[in-house]
Amino acid sequence: MALTQEQKKQFKSIGHHLKPVLIVAENGLTEGVMAELERALNDHELIKVQFRITERDDRRALIDELCQNGSCELIQVIGKMALVYRRNPKPNRNLSNISRYSGL
Questions:
Q1: Range of 32's domain?
Q2: Whole-number pLDDT of residue 1
Q3: For residue 71, what is the domain's CATH number?
Q4: CA angle 38-75-81, nearest 5°?
Q5: Distance between alpha carbon 40 and the CA centroid of its chain, in Å?
Q6: pLDDT, mean of residues 4-15
Q7: DSSP secondary structure string, the chain?
Q8: Which of 23, 54, 95, 98, by CA, is between 20 and 30 Å from 89?
Q9: How many alpha carbons fall within 13 Å on the CB side of residue 36?
Q10: pLDDT in tens, 28-80
Q11: How far apart are CA 80 and CA 55, in angstroms?
Q12: How many CB atoms lie within 10 A of CB 102?
């Protein structure tokens, strides 16, 4: 499902206040990282991911791979932070960042 510009704008404003839930280091997308990504997206829908990789091209390739493997949509990249979203059909209102911050 493609997001509209209005939705992306809203998600960016919500994401501004979030802290990184997942940190990806030099080892890349390990099995543990992917399991934590799956858990975080199921719980929160919108998450911030920090990449501890210095090379910009490597970091961008890893972000694209993360979005493809995690079936999530990239909202924004600023420096070493990426904001990603995946809709949960049955979100938990207490955990979902979308529900908590937008009042949906």
A1: 5-102
A2: 60
A3: 3.30.110.60
A4: 75
A5: 9
A6: 94
A7: -PPPHHHHHHHHHHHTTPPEEEEE-TT-S-HHHHHHHHHHHHHHSEEEEEE----HHHHHHHHHHHHHHTT-EEEEEETTEEEEE---SS--TTT-HHHHHH--
A8: 23
A9: 13
A10: 999 999 999 999 999 999 999 999 999 999 999 999 999 999 999 999 999 99
A11: 10
A12: 13
Whose tokens are 């991911």? That residue is 49
pLDDT at site 103: 58
Question: Given a cut of 60, is residue 104 above it in pLDDT?
Answer: no
pLDDT-derived band at 2 (thresholds 50, 70, 90) equals confident
Instruction: Please give the tally of structural domains in the chain.
Output: 1
- The tokens describing 77, both together, are 């990249």
d(C-alpha 56, C-alpha 100), whole Å: 33
CA distance 63 to 91: 24
Cβ(95)–Cβ(52) under 8 Å?
A: no
